[in-house]
Amino acid sequence: MKKITTKYSDLSKSQLIKLVEEMEETFYQISNDKNETELLSFPWIGNLGQWHWMVENNLLLFNEKKLTNLGYEREEIPEEVGFEFFTSKLHPDDYERVMEDMRKYLRHASDVYEVEYRIQTKDGNYIWYYDRGTITKENEDGEPLIISGIVFDITKRKVLEEELKESNEKLKQLVDIDELTGAFTRRYMLNKIENEIQRYNTEKLCFSLIMLDIDNFKLVNDNLGHNIGDTVLKDFVEIVEKPLRVKDSLSRWGGEEFLILLPATNLSDAVKIANEIRVGLNHTCMNDAGIVTASIGVSNYYEGDSTDNAIKRVDDLMYQAKYDDRNCIKY
């Protein structure tokens, strides 16, 4: 094919037709030459071969493996296929992102066309493809004439990623959530308090802590059994959570002890919340266990406190309530 040195606007109709025919012939030759060898050039799992897109004519050539992987036979589709044959099968949530990636590449706003997306198979299911392409031919004005790339089926990888994500979520729940009560764990709460201290140091937002210990819980286990004791712990958490706000966090600190973090809350407001909890407990009958109360300590954060110091202060107040009268609040 001769090198084109004249602009398209200077060509006659017959010259333009000839030019297009020459480009198409060259394009088909490129595709046919590579079709049998491209899978050997990229021997990775999921390789579906190369594709070549003649931008001006919207003519797309591709390895038939990309088509059969979607459940189609070559005879089922038109002889000439445009870019929209595949883009029309994109998942609705991926369509605009994929198209924008291509638009950005066509206007040279990105170095390479590279995208992952879901595409619908003939039977209506979706699988994952990874596409990567680059401009292989431009006109004199730097506008793309041919873009060539390679496509992979990455469905297995995506399934593994999703399984790993679910496993990590389950592991995180095991680490952060108490299995019996559904409250946060001690470890989680320690991290939350440390974060609140950092927040205080930068924003000077005071926070408060409430420590609760179920009164006479050992008697519940000894007299009614551990199954009833477990039920009491779960019911206790449900009652305690009722007056809490979305931003508050409740953790099982250990055994029958629970710690509440109240972000952006002064001592006065924290005592009000603690009293709501105390009243809720006193007005709720836990079946066989009857009324279950708690000894409660309330403290706000003092500037310069470490995490341990802040927790020790509220813990001491809780024990003061326990050794004085039980079923009361100390602050």
UniProtKB/TrEMBL annotation:
Domain of life: Bacteria
Organism of derivation: Carnobacterium iners
Segments forming domain PAS: 56-109
MF (Gene Ontology): diguanylate cyclase activity
SUPFAM superfamilies per the UniProt record, alphabetical: Nucleotide cyclase, PYP-like sensor domain (PAS domain)
Domain GGDEF per the UniProt entry, residue ranges: 205-331
Stretches assigned to the PAC domain: 113-166
Gene3D superfamilies in UniProt: 3.30.70.270, PAS domain
A Pfam family it matches: PAS_3
UniProt-recorded name of the protein: PAS domain S-box-containing protein/diguanylate cyclase (GGDEF) domain-containing protein
